[in-house]
Amino acid sequence: QVQLVESGGGLVQAGGSLSLSCAASGRTFSFSRYSMGWFRQVPGKERDFVAAISRSGGSLYYADSVKGRFTISRDNAKNTVYLQMNSLKPEDTANYYCNAQVGWTRSTWYAANFDSWGQGTQVTVSS
Predict the structure, then answer these.
(1) Per residue in 21-52, pLDDT tens?
(2) What value does the mean pLDDT take over residues 93-118?
(3) Which candidate, 23, 6, 9, places its Cα nearest to that of 92?
């Protein structure tokens, strides 16, 4: 089973930037064999897909709401996936989570497809 530890959240003004990190580990987990993704959740609402990156990093997939503002990347040597968030808006306020899956098909990037999660990292954007 994979352990996921998100970090980098905080409080930022609208228009500002934050960079999130997610360190993945596990006794039998091979990071480079997994696609990685970010999700976010506001209390009382569903956990929504934000961005995903393929195993090699060559393919990227973004939710329409963050296209052009967020950038997902990964470092396979460090077992870490990143989310650079620019031009932040108050509606980006949420707890952000990462996750991993073997497949890459876009239709599989929804929260119910994943069994376990890390604790997430809170991002708050003030207006």
Answers:
(1) 999 999 999 999 999 999 999 999 999 999 99
(2) 93
(3) 9
Structural tokens at position 100: 């991993």
- CA-to-CA dists, residue 110 to 19, 25, 65, 101, angstroms: 22, 21, 15, 11
73: β partners: 82
Of 33, 48, 43, nearest to 112 (Cα)?
A: 48
**What are the φ and ψ backbone dihedral angles of 24, each rounded to 5 degrees?**
-115, 140
Provide the residue type at 97 as one letter.
Y
Q: Are 11 and 126 in contact (CB under 8 A)?
A: yes
Give yes or no for a contact between 107 and 113, defined as CB atoms under 8 angstroms apart: no
Q: Rounded distance, CA 109 to CA 80, Å?
A: 19
DSSP symbol at 68: T
